[in-house]
Amino acid sequence: MVKSPILLICITLLSLLCVIFLYPPSVFLCVSPPREIIFSAKEELREKAAAQEHYAGKTKGKIYIVKKGDTLYSLSKRFGVTISELASVNNINNINLIYINQALIVPEPEPEQKPKLQPPNGQIKQKNGETIRVINPPVRTTSIEQKPKSIEGEGVLLMPWKEVKKLLKPKMTYTLIDVDTNLMFNVVHRFGTLHSDVEPRTPKDTEILKRIYGEWSWERRAVVAIINGKKIAASLIGMPHGSQSITDNNFPGMICVHFLGSAVHKTGKVDPQHQAMVKKASFYELPPDK
């Protein structure tokens, strides 16, 4: 029996459609859709251990493995650090691009200190049956708002952080004068969203910083920052933390310089101890040669 050509063509096309339906082209081409590789808990621990071993001694902070949905913004809020800090520590050029399972260094945020309270002058304390009169050092009653704004060349400026920030550029060098010792040293500004993160510029600058503090400490100290010729009241901490970009200054990290109205990265709040030191620095009388 001879079949018509049209019928044969229809049967052939129907057969091809059945084959395509049952066996998609991806089967023949060995193509599979891309998929994300997610670490198991054990694999994540191994990845963290490997990253910690790699960065051991190079920086202070903890290791975090990026998960689905993470962004530098969400991680900065979670760990109390800035996006610029995370990007700098991890050498990230595009802050919008991080990868699942990427090992990130999370720098240690600056701890917030509670102000120490002093008893008022003339307060009586009892100790072993003896009466003791407590006399505290005199405290200036002039508030920061009452401090007259100095003009350039005639003393120390009380300049708000939002104005100071406009003067600072990455890798810019400026000078700090410790109010209590008159010792001077240079620092390099790295970055700063809420305050200025800096590093001593040379081993000599690190040595002077160590002389000022005696030992590394979170203690706030009144300093005067000389930036572009402007003398600005500031506050300093002397504890190395986070990463370092200058590797030949004998200083394992960075330190923080606060100004009027600046804030702590961990909390986003103004630190009362820093502001007290800024106020103290604003009354500093610069030597004639400074």
Automatic annotation (TrEMBL):
Q: Where is the LysM domain?
A: 62-106
In terms of superkingdom, the source organism counts as Bacteria
Transmembrane region positions?
none
Q: Name one Pfam family in it.
A: LysM
Q: Which organism is it from?
A: Koleobacter methoxysyntrophicus
Q: What is its EC number?
A: 3.5.1.28
Record's protein name: N-acetylmuramoyl-L-alanine amidase XlyA
Top enzyme class: hydrolase
Q: Which GO terms describe its molecular function?
A: N-acetylmuramoyl-L-alanine amidase activity
Keyword terms of this UniProt record: Hydrolase
Q: Which residues form a coiled coil?
A: none
